[in-house]
Amino acid sequence: MTNFLTKSISVSRAVSLVSHGIKPFVATRGLATVKDQSFTLNKKPPPPIAPYAPVSLKPTPATLKLKSGEVYTGTSFGANVHTSGEAVFTTSLVGYPESMTDPSYRGQVLVFTQPLVGNYGVPGIFKDEYGLLKFFESDRIHCEGIVVSDYASRYSHWTAVESLGEWCTRFGVPAISGVDTRAIVHILRDQGSTLSKLYIGEDPDFSKIPYSDPNERNLVSEVSTAVPRGAAVTVLPWNFNFNKVSDQFDGIFISNGPGNPTKVVETVQNVRHALATYKRPIFGICMGNLVLGLAAGLDVYKLRFGNRGHNVPALNVLDGKCQITSQNHGYALQDNVMPNGWTKYYVNANDGSNEGIRHTTLPFKSVQFHPEAKGGPQDTEFLFDEFLSKVRTDKIQREGIKTFVPETFISQPQVV
């Protein structure tokens, strides 16, 4: 292995020197050896090596412009298209395939605070025993573009099948590297999230790209889609009135999603009706927490720069335990005054924003973070177990089962 590495490095250096018009000793000695062998075999010497053809290695420039006026120039390593969206940042150290395929990033230009991105490439389409994607949140990239400080075009990982740049190009997503992401994050942190434009090519003409504000769109309708835990799950569209069929289900799960929760009016109305008529367990995550809060009578507000990362501490107000969570949201519930019958469940240990609510007497609760943690920590994965356990218990009591029955003998709970 050592010899192989040494020879590889020598050849690489030799090629580099030759390209600059220098004849390295290693390369000359190698050619001489081949030449001597040729004469020994009474063969004609090989033809002279043709001079290197000029190859243009000039990178494609890219420019990022924030609506607040700042402009950053760098290099493109993704699709050769322009884009626009809300500039947001994530503090995740790893997990860029999961973040980029998270529908919650719909309409956003994602800035990575981690300096080096792309070093482990992009994995292939691997599925688990239940047919779910193992390394992605969905089957496509949802963010509008990405911004990194240092892009690693050469990757190494046993699951990787392509580079981050190749992946972005294949999905038509522009990407820029070589910019000061620290400065960008400082701006987003101090003044809040802002709209941005990403131009690929020479002489950027930003007048050709209108600012696109994803918060003015119903993003949930654009992405509307399970970890298996012994439950039969029926996935319904965002605006489906599930109250018409709710008696067929043992629980309701309100999923995560992108954008402004006030835009999903139909969903909020349907959940509000369920809170008044449905007494079986209801659980929501991320956007589901915002929807449940709106349905319960709370207001929402836009966070200054949002909470996005795999290392956000959330404090459980019931037992005082602090758990590290994966988050991706730009809105929060205004929980300084809680509606009758509702109380806080989790609080963000960094900024004090709401991270969850629960009903004091009925089996309704939600959290602002992602317990499924893909990628990220699994500290709060138990919340899914609690929800399914409550669904099973409620089903047993409702169907009149008086004695303990193992879960394997209970018909699968139906969750919508």
TrEMBL record:
<dbReference type="InterPro" id="IPR002474">
    <property type="entry name" value="CarbamoylP_synth_ssu_N"/>
</dbReference>
<dbReference type="InterPro" id="IPR050472">
    <property type="entry name" value="Anth_synth/Amidotransfase"/>
</dbReference>
<dbReference type="InterPro" id="IPR035686">
    <property type="entry name" value="CPSase_GATase1"/>
</dbReference>
<feature type="domain" description="Carbamoyl-phosphate synthase small subunit N-terminal">
    <location>
        <begin position="60"/>
        <end position="199"/>
    </location>
</feature>
<dbReference type="GO" id="GO:0004088">
    <property type="term" value="F:carbamoyl-phosphate synthase (glutamine-hydrolyzing) activity"/>
</dbReference>
<comment type="pathway">
    <text>Amino-acid biosynthesis; L-arginine biosynthesis; carbamoyl phosphate from bicarbonate: step 1/1.</text>
</comment>
<comment type="subunit">
    <text>Heterodimer composed of 2 chains; the small (or glutamine) chain promotes the hydrolysis of glutamine to ammonia, which is used by the large (or ammonia) chain to synthesize carbamoyl phosphate.</text>
</comment>
<keyword id="KW-0315">Glutamine amidotransferase</keyword>
<dbReference type="Pfam" id="PF00988">
    <property type="entry name" value="CPSase_sm_chain"/>
</dbReference>
<dbReference type="InterPro" id="IPR017926">
    <property type="entry name" value="GATASE"/>
</dbReference>
<comment type="similarity">
    <text>Belongs to the CarA family.</text>
</comment>
<dbReference type="InterPro" id="IPR036480">
    <property type="entry name" value="CarbP_synth_ssu_N_sf"/>
</dbReference>
<protein>
    <recommendedName>
        <fullName>carbamoyl-phosphate synthase (glutamine-hydrolyzing)</fullName>
        <ecNumber>6.3.5.5</ecNumber>
    </recommendedName>
</protein>
<dbReference type="InterPro" id="IPR029062">
    <property type="entry name" value="Class_I_gatase-like"/>
</dbReference>
<dbReference type="Pfam" id="PF00117">
    <property type="entry name" value="GATase"/>
</dbReference>
